[in-house]
């Protein structure tokens, strides 16, 4: 699951609104941006409308020069492409790290397609689907002018997946590659002992898998497949001395403070169809106050909130009330589905009709409100989200045109469940997540209408998975019938989204994400079948079936497909929302001077 | 309306000092008049709240600029001070007139050495170098009987004993040779032997400097030691004025009798009160009608009903001896001779 | 007088002995603080059933393999007995320690407070790196508030009851009541984003890089932070001044014939300021340990911003480091204040 950096300081909301009320200026209107770039041409603001960046490229321009400024309220786990799990960083690291494949630079569903980046073409799978071969483009150089070799890709994957130092990124390669008991390049300096990948020549790389995996192309679109020369690797310190293959290279990095990139002269546009190289310089400030980032965005002092998780409640309120500001925003889906899981192992939810009663009784406009209403999420009815490859909309539990619940149906299923007057159960929630607590309260009020009495139990998010909701024995013992959770896929396919949360064989004693403990043989078999199906269309059809099966179990109840409200200052050029990241494509941006 | 300047060195004419407060007007001093010549000592006695200290601060002009309403006249060496500017009165303070405060531990600044405080007082009025002023400070400390003054000059007030502090305070007050010296309860905080030393010291210094001295106290013993003349105050007014002999041997005001009778004496149990003054000092906001002392006066019934209706005047009873009482002079003398004096002498 | 101490005065040797004793006490204090902090973050979780793996799982990626977690346990020595862990921590402070970066080891020379769990940076150099920002903020604000607060307080006391006094005290009440993140955001919104007089948040620049930028970026944070404290100090000063002006020694000073200005500046202020200076010392010491709200609001990379982020990110070594660091400042500030107090107020005997 991807991490977001939503350190929302909701309490600041009202304070900021009050402060801003006195302001009333519009973006760039002050002509007082701190970047030394002549007169601000705020008056000539683009005529772009709300959500234009979602369907097309706003402010298309090939103007070069200037400094592109990012700010982030958090700091990254690492700027090392091999050692990061933040969604925004899988987007951002592409500025200096080219993986084998990447997503097509287009808005809308077209952007979910993989295109060659370092590789010449998509992977070539063997007949049994266990061997994947990629050919590297020739002439791709690091920023120091040396040529990229296949062994560097192999080394990059070895270091990011097989060492105890680089722990922050995902470990899919360790899971799927047939590497025996390889100890990793830090304990075993001889790369030949890493049998999971073979490099027959400098431009060919062959992945050997334990079992067939039809979506392997998605794995190599992760920045972990960006090459790292073994001689340049300094382990945890590599983020401070990156070898760049992208249009930018590292200028300076002060950990926890700022990260600056300058143009990489050794990058060749001819080999790279997905990126642009417009700004002279790219600056990132870390650990900036979240509300202040919004103010600076609106006033044109910075260009992008790097996290891509949207503006804070205070700025949101201001933007919603100002049509001009709203035209400078987009409202994309994030990869996240926000949902409740009903434990099939906790009475009376072992009975499907009791689960269905909850599905029908829930007022989904009430559970949508805490996310910020329609701007914060669209009411969901499937396990997969709209920006997942293979998503097909359907609704098995229609609860009224206004989504306020179908109480008659709910009562019907309660009777069928043998609980005509309702029952008592618990709702588990991460107590330090304000929105999720509010959702739990809305759900509680919904269910109360049909006699389902619930008690809200709050647990700390830090140990949520390791100690509480992620431990089936704890769930059983404490009768946690309903658990409020969320999930975002590591890659936008049905498998990427579903396997961890619906596969019965992934039910773990601790750190369990299949909290409903759904162990449906049909679902498990479909997942196995799908991941071995090389034909994408057929495979995506299977994911839709899995989604239907999961929803038929009635144990999974989606609240919303999460959306964010992101701001694009008028000085930002070439802006569009990339669907694979749910944020702007950071490799395309330029700035007006 | 102002009468010509008097011949006396100090003369107060109908001085009134009132303080407006949230509860009403506090008439701390309400029509006080007296005279004092150089070389003479006036003792002002009375309970707390009788207006003694307010009077002395009023003479120094320390109520100026505050909320106090001041009327009447204060003549000092031919100058009228009530109508004089605050700044002019300030130039007189410390030099022409000075004050010895009670409780010198709180009256001296805790953060400055004794010497520094004397030096400061001296240099306000004398344009001399610090070294000269320091020498003068050491001299003064020596004259008031501080041993090793050249060392103790650098001590802080809290390093001194109570008696030494009082001496230092006196040294500070006398540093500019003031012509009028007001001592407010100069010995209250001290033990008996030290009291005696301080009183001796003040008497000596007064004769040496030939200054006019006002001693304010509730302790008749101190007054007896020092004073030529005595003013008894009650409720912001003078109720009896006369020479020390007048007051001690021929007192005519019932309040004075009470004070005398409550003087501690070696031959009597300290708790024994022959003629107690019942009740408590009067409110200065709602002054009792008629004679302010009437609610506490044993003899109020002998005034033919005037005690509660008419404010008595301060009238001369004998050459220079003034009394504020409704009772006829003969009756007052008779009561003193026949009722009070025998009791005081009997035991 | 040279060569001879008047009776009751602290001798030079006494002062030295006092300082030595206090320094020893301070070091002991810090040792205890380190133990207690360590216990809070490491001993108590374990006593409550936290396994070394559970602890390690927070510091590796989301879907970490058991091998990665085991690797982290070994790398961070989380499976050692707590006493051994504390010993290693204490040893690190005294003699330093090594830390595996992968292909090579990083040296962490003494005093080594360990490495951040979140970004693997050594804690001590990070603290030193953040210190100038915090010092810049704290000192500038402190100078502002002591001047403004004391002046307003003195004038208010002297003009007691006037319109000016009432206005100043209303303003001061606002300053005390309004939280910094409110005043900070409002001042940013008005002065930085609407009027454009000062740069916005995140514009802090090191003094050594660009003194002018440093100053411009800090004006708003200084004023914001100083506003709160100036309000506090104005109220303190006013109350102290009113009390002092009623003291007998002020009457004495007037009775000497001193000008009112001298009475106020030399006699009243001296006594009023002494307790305020001691509070000032402690406040400053506390602030040097990090002005969390101001640094957060203005995105100043100081100690306070560091620690609040570390707390949010469960970054125990950084939290531990900052706690000790702040404790050092507070202990040192206390020591200095005690010594200063003895110098300023002759009634305080050093013993």
Descriptive overview:
Chain B: Residues 10-260 form the ABC transporter domain. Chain B: InterPro entries: AAA+_ATPase, ABC_Ni/Peptide_Import, ABC_transporter-like_ATP-bd, ABC_transporter-like_CS, Oligopep_ABC_C, P-loop_NTPase. Chain B: It is found in: Cell membrane. Chain B: It is a peripheral membrane protein. The complex is a heterotrimer of chains A (593), B (347) and C (351). In chain A, helix 1 crosses helix 8, helix 16 runs parallel beside helix 18 and helix 17 packs antiparallel against helix 18. Chain A is built from 18 helices and 23 strands. Helices cover 25% and strands 17% of the residues of chain A. The relative contact order of chain A is 0.17. Chain A has 593 residues and is α+β, with helices and mostly antiparallel strands. Helix content of chain B is 35%, strand content 22%. Chain B has helices at residues 52-60, 86-92, 104-107, 114-125, 130-143, 149-152, 162-174, 192-209, 220-226, 244-249, 254-261, 329-346, and strands at 10-21, 24-36, 41-45, 69-76, 79-80, 97-100, 180-184, 212-217, 229-234, 237-243, 314-318, 321-324. In chain B, a hairpin with a 2-residue loop joins strand 4 and strand 5. The longest helix of chain B is centred in the middle third of the chain and has 18 residues, at 192-209. Chain C is mostly helical and 351 residues long. Chain C has a two-stranded antiparallel sheet.
Features:
heterotrimer, A: about 600 residues, six-stranded mixed sheet, five-stranded mixed sheet, B: about 350 residues, alpha/beta, eight-stranded mixed sheet, four-stranded antiparallel sheet, cell membrane (chain B), ABC transporter ATP-binding protein (chain B)
């Amino acid at each position: 699951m991807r991490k977001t950096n939503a350190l929302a300081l909701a309490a600041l909301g009202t304070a900021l609104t009050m402060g801003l009320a006195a302001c009333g200026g519009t973006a760039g209107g002050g002509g007082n941006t701190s970047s030394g770039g002549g007169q601000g041409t705020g008056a000539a603001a683009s005529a772009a409308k709300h959500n234009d960046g979602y369907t097309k490229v706003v402010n298309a321009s090939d103007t070069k020069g200037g400094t592109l400024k990012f700010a982030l309220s958090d700091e990254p786990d690492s700027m090392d492409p091999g050692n990061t799990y933040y969604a925004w960083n899988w987007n951002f690291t592409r500025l200096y790290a080219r993986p084998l494949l990447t997503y097509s630079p287009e808005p809308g569903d077209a952007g979910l397609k993989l295109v060659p980046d370092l590789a010449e073409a998509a992977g070539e799978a063997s007949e049994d689907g266990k061997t994947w071969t990629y050919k590297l483009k020739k002439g791709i150089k690091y920023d120091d002018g040396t040529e990229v070799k296949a062994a560097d890709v192999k080394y990059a994957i070895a270091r990011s997946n097989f060492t105890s130092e680089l722990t922050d990124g995902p470990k899919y390669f360790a899971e799927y590659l047939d590497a025996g008991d390889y100890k990793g390049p830090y304990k075993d300096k001889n790369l030949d002992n890493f049998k999971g990948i073979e490099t027959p020549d400098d431009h060919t790389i062959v992945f050997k898998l334990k079992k067939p995996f039809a979506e392997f192309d998605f794995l190599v679109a992760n920045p972990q497949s960006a090459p790292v020369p073994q001689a340049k690797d300094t382990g945890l310190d590599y983020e401070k001395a990156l070898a760049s293959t992208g249009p930018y290279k590292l200028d300076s990095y002060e950990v926890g403070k700022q990260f600056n990139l300058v143009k990489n002269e050794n990058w060749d546009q001819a080999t790279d169809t997905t990126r642009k190289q417009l700004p002279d310089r790219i600056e990132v400030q870390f650990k900036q106050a979240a509300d202040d980032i919004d103010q600076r965005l609106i006033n044109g002092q910075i260009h992008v909130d790097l996290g891509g998780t949207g503006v804070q409640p205070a700025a949101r309120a201001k933007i919603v009330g100002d049509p001009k500001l709203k035209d400078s925003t987009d409202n994309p889906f994030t990869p996240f589905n926000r949902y409740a899981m009903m434990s099939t192992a906790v009475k009376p939810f072992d009975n499907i009709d009791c689960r269905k009663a909850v599905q029908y009784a829930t007022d989904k406009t009430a559970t949508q409100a805490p996310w910020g209403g329609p701007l914060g999420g669209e009411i969901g009815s499937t396990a997969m989200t709209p920006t997942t490859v293979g998503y097909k909309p359907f609704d098995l539990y229609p609860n009224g045109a206004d989504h306020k619940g179908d109480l008659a149906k709910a009562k019907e299923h309660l009777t069928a469940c043998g609980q005509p007057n309702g029952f008592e159960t618990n709702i588990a929630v991460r107590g330090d997540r304000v929105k999720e607590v509010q959702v739990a309260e809305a759900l509680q009020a919904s269910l109360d209408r049909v006699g389902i009495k619930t008690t809200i139990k709050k647990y700390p998010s830090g140990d949520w998975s390791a100690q509480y909701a992620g431990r089936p024995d704890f769930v059983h013992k404490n009768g946690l019938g309903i658990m409020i959770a969320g999930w975002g896929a590591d890659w936008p396919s049905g498998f990427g989204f579903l396997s961890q949360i619906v596969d019965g064989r992934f039910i773990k004693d601790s750190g369990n994400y299949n909290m409903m403990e759904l162990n449906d043989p049909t679902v498990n078999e479909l997942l196995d079948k799908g991941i071995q199906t090389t034909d994408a269309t057929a495979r995506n059809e299977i994911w839709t079936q899995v989604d239907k099966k999961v929803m038929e179990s009635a144990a999974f109840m989606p609240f919303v497909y999460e959306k964010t409200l992101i701001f694009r200052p008028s000085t930002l050029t070439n802006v569009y929302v990339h669907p694979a990241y749910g944020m702007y494509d950071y490799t395309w941006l330029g700035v007006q001077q | 309306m102002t009468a010509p300047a008097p011949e006396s060195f100090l003369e107060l004419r109908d001085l009134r000092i009132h303080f407006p407060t949230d509860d009403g007007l506090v008439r701390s001093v309400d029509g006080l008049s007296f005279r004092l010549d150089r070389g003479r000592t006036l003792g002002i006695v009375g309970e707390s709240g009788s207006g003694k200290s307010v009077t002395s601060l009023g003479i120094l002009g320390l109520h100026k600029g505050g909320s106090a309403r001041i009327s009447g006249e204060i003549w000092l060496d031919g100058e009228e001070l009530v109508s004089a500017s605050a700044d002019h009165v300030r130039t007189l303070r410390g030099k022409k007139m000075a004050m010895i405060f009670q409780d010198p531990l709180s009256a001296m600044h805790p953060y400055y050495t004794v010497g520094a405080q004397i030096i400061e007082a001296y240099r306000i009025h004398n344009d001399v170098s610090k070294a000269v002023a320091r020498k003068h400070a050491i001299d003064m400390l020596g004259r008031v009987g501080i041993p090793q003054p050249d060392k103790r000059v650098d001590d802080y007030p809290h390093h001194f004993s109570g008696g030494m502090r009082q001496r230092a305070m006196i040294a500070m007050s006398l540093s500019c040779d003031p012509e009028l010296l007001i001592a407010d309860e100069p010995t209250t905080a001290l033990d008996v032997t030290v009291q005696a030393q301080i009183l001796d010291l003040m008497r000596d210094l007064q004769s040496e400097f030939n200054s006019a001295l006002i001693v304010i106290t509730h302790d008749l013993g101190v007054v007896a030691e020092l004073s030529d003349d005595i003013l008894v105050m009650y409720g912001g007014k003078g109720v009896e004025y006369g020479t020390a002999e007048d007051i001690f041997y021929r007192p005519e005001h019932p309040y004075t009798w009470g004070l005398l009778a409550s003087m501690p004496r070696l031959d009597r149990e300290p708790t024994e009160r022959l003629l107690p003054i019942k009740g408590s000092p009067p409110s200065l906001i709602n002054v009792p009608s008629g004679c302010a002392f009437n609610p506490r006066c044993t003899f109020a019934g002998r005034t033919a009903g005037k005690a509660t209706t008419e404010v008595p005047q301060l009238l001369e009873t004998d050459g220079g001896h003034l009394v504020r009482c409704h009772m006829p002079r003969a009756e007052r003398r008779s009561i003193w001779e026949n009722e009070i004096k025998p009791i005081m002498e009997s035991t | 007088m040279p060569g001879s101490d008047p009776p009751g005065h602290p001798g030079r040797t006494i002062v030295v002995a006092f300082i030595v004793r206090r320094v020893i006490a301070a070091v002991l204090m810090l040792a205890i603080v380190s133990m207690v902090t360590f216990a809070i973050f490491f001993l108590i979780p374990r006593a409550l059933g936290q396994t070394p793996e559970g602890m390690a799982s927070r510091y590796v990626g989301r879907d970490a393999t058991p091998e990665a977690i085991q690797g982290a346990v070994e790398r961070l020595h989380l499976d050692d007995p707590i006493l051994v862990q504390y010993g290693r921590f204490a040893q690190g402070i005294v003699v330093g320690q090594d830390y595996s970066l992968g292909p090579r080891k990083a040296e962490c020379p003494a005093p080594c407070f360990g490495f951040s769990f979140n970004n693997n940076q050594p804690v001590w150099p990070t603290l030193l790196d953040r210190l100038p920002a915090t010092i810049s903020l704290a000192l500038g604000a402190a100078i502002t508030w002591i001047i403004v607060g004391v002046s307003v307080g003195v004038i208010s006391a002297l003009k007691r009851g006037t319109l000016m006094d009432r206005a100043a005290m209303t303003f001061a009440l606002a300053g005390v009541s309004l939280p910094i993140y409110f005043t900070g955001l409002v001042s940013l919104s008005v002065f930085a984003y609407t009027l454009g007089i000062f740069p916005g948040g995140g514009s802090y620049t090191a003094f050594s890089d660009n003194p002018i930028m440093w100053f411009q970026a800090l004006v708003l944070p200084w004023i914001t932070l100083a506003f709160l404290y100036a309000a506090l100090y104005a109220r303190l000063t006013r109350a102290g001044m009113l009390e002092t002006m009623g003291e007998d020694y002020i009457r004495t000073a007037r009775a000497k014939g001193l000008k009112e200005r001298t009475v106020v500046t030399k006699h009243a202020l001296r006594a009023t300021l002494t307790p305020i200076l001691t509070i000032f010392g402690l406040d400053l010491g506390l602030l040097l340990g990090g002005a969390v709200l101001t640094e957060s609001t203005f995105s100043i990379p100081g100690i306070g911003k560091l620690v609040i982020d570390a707390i949010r990110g469960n970054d125990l070594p950084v939290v531990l480091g900052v706690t000790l660091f702040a404790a050092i400042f507070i202990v040192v500030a206390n020591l200095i204040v005690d010594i200063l107090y003895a110098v300023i107020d002759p009634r305080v005997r050093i013993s």
